[in-house]
Amino acid sequence: MRILTKLYHRIRRGTKKRIQYLFYLLRLKKEILVRKDVHLALDSSSNDEVIISLTSFPARFGVLGGCLKSLLYQRVRPHRLIVWLAEEEVEGLDLSKQIPEFEFFVRSGIEFALIEENLRSYNKLLPALKRYPRGIIVTCDDDILYPPWFLEKMVRAYNPEEICFYRAWEMETDPRGRMAPYHTWNDASSKTPSSRLFFTGVGGVLYPPGSLAEEVFNVSRIRELCPSGDDIWFNAMALLKGTKKRLLLSNSYSFPIIKESLSQRSALRERNVAQGFNDVMLRAVFDCYNLYQFL
């Protein structure tokens, strides 16, 4: 009976996500028809410059456009929207032919910036932190459809003392005080700031200036301890700095994933979660920096 109950809820969640995905597509198409002329609010004179930062790579260029349009048609627009691309991955490519509607995105104010050092998923945040140390940086994933209220709620809730986000887990420890397996954690379900919240980049994360420890730029440590766990690293650096973390809604919220990228995400999840690699990286980082004391 318990197996049937679990199966029912799994099917129900899957159906809900498909309906949500179709709704977002229809909403986005409506916004595009109504607002054909769109441009970012590039007012760099503001003291509180809001920068949306994400990264992409050739295998994702086919879905990148959907994500970028969802970010262009926000109720509140950022001052900058930057897509970071690793030089080694796009060398010799004509981006105007590789990225659908590339010229439209450039005219709309989106910046496509090349970076020499390729840290893959870390590219969504580290280059922006270096170039705009005083900026309010919001990271996104390149295969997600973000609703029109995504940035507005973040900006309205902004607190320079807190990292805020839409999706998170509650970190759990075992009876010995060590990190419990990642797959046993529960969804976050409170808007109360907590050091035990573990935000995930897929839902979007807002980082105030100076909210992460300077150690965040230690590339040798990243490669040694956490090569494919950017979420783990950024959460660890927030703990190390002592920055509060807060869920924006009363429950952890997941935005629709553009379906063409689901197989890539499944492969990463299989390696990091199902095979336990997340647990290896978590314990390595927490042991290295003695982070248990901050939970």
TrEMBL record:
Keyword Transferase among UniProt keywords: yes
UniProt cross-references to SUPFAM superfamilies, sorted A to Z: Nucleotide-diphospho-sugar transferases
Keywords: Transferase
Taxonomic superkingdom: Bacteria
Molecular function as annotated in GO: transferase activity
Protein's name according to its UniProt entry: Probable glycosyltransferase
Species: Winmispira thermophila (strain ATCC 49972 / DSM 6192 / RI 19.B1) (Spirochaeta thermophila)
